[in-house]
Amino acid sequence: MSLEEEVMIVEFAQGIRSEDDLFDHFRQLNDDDKTDRIFDMTRLIGELEPTNFEIEQASANMPTESAGPVEIGVYFPRKKRLTQVSLRIDLANDVLEKSYLTLLRLFKATYQRQFVLERKNAVDWWFQDLADNNAVANILTNHRALVEEIYQHPGFRGEFASIAKLHHASQMLRAAKVQNVQASASGTYHFVRYEEIVTASIEDNKYNYAAFMLSGSVMRALSKRYHLKPFRAVQVMQEVVGRHTRELDEPGETG
């Protein structure tokens, strides 16, 4: 999720933007991107530490009529307590929009509760008045400046380039396997042994695993150096990696 989209969601929670605005934007996404936004919403909600009651209300409104439910259980850790609450979310394509709408309303409910506590001493931009266009412009400008600084930072540049190359290699491997499957399709099948499944899984995910490990290290370094929350560090990383990825796709287009 881009920062611009996140601003839109917080504007909705503040009553500045309508639910229809966000819903229309969501509808334009493909199913994969819609699923990504569902997970993005759970991360945003997790930052607000929803109460048991808020989770129960959201659970009651979650769709249950999907043709083939693909459910996940999302846990929201409590920073000041050992307990955590969970919410089951239906990811079936035919109800993704309803699941998103439920999460959007849950975010607004948890945000408005937290806003009462934070508004007098707002440090995080989430709790600033986003009806002020200058405030929004400053948020976006500061974010872009940070992305540029990290992109140009010699201490991180090699790591980000490596992450981009690993993602690119993973995509190429996946595309090649799809082509091989299509080319070798003969209509005959055989039972797959457990060892074959394990070997194929390791081979298919070798680049992703390396990227995951390296990304985790970089995320922690960015969080510490720039005093970023983990989810904010990930957001910045995605933009920086995206720039490096475009350089791979378009050789010669650097800086």
From TrEMBL:
<protein>
    <submittedName>
        <fullName>Uncharacterized protein</fullName>
    </submittedName>
</protein>
<dbReference type="InterPro" id="IPR046002">
    <property type="entry name" value="DUF5958"/>
</dbReference>
<dbReference type="Pfam" id="PF19383">
    <property type="entry name" value="DUF5958"/>
</dbReference>
